[in-house]
Amino acid sequence: MKTGLFFGSFNPIHNGHMAIAEYIIENTDLEELWFIVSPMNPLKKKKTMLEDHHRLELVYLAVGDDIRFKVSDIEFSMPKPSFTVDTLTYLSEKYPNREFEIILGSDNLMNFHRWKNSEILIQHYKRLVYPRHGNEMPDILKHKNIEIVQAPRIEISSSFIRESISKGKKVKFFMPLAVWNYIDEMNFYK
User: What is the 3-state secondary structure (H, E, C) of the chain?
Assistant: First the structure.
């Protein structure tokens, strides 16, 4: 079964994430898409990061009962920081009948060489790459294990949402309503 893995801190998850996920599941040969909530990205700062269980809950709220999507906290029980290659090794051993593919934005592809054991990922896992604003698509895209997904460019970012909330601005229509309600009730990012 072809399964896409959409890794992220999802701090918070927003409509851009959901639109990309839906576009990819509807326009590729993936049968399922898993949101892998990462506890700590080694390339990001943890300063404004919500606690793991809150970010996981936000993703569950965003996905709701959509059976095309699964939410995973697999990296919560793995050594920190979490590395994609370790997660994929574990998942490939646990689910040998699944063919895992990595979903990432073109901005992450630009730093892919910095990922732990990137050469293993490049050789053994297909990468579905969607365009991100401000990032030119690099020459590496000609690799056999890369598929460009022409998803619409969504100009929403988690950092924009966090900054807006911290300034007292309403951004409830930038994310699923259940996600906004949880963030607002918990006074996150203020």
Answer: CEEEEEEECCCCCCHHHHHHHHHHHHHCCCCEEEEEECCCCCCCCCCCCCCHHHHHHHHHHHHCCCCCEEEECHHHHCCCCCCHHHHHHHHHHHCCCCEEEEEEEHHHHHCHHHCCCHHHHHHHCEEEEECCCCCCCCHHHHCCCEEECCCCCCCCCHHHHHHHHHCCCCCHHHCCHHHHHHHHHHCCCC
pLDDT of residue 141: 57
Domain count, the chain: 1
CATH, residue 12: 3.40.50.620
Residue at 175 is within a domain: no
Q: Does residue 183 belong to any structural domain of this protein?
A: no
- What integer pLDDT is reported at residue 150 of this predicted model? 87
Q: Which domain holds residue 18?
A: 2-154
Q: What is the mean pLDDT of the chain?
A: 91
Residue 179: what residue type?
V
pLDDT in tens, 88-123: 999 999 999 999 999 998 888 778 888 899 889 989
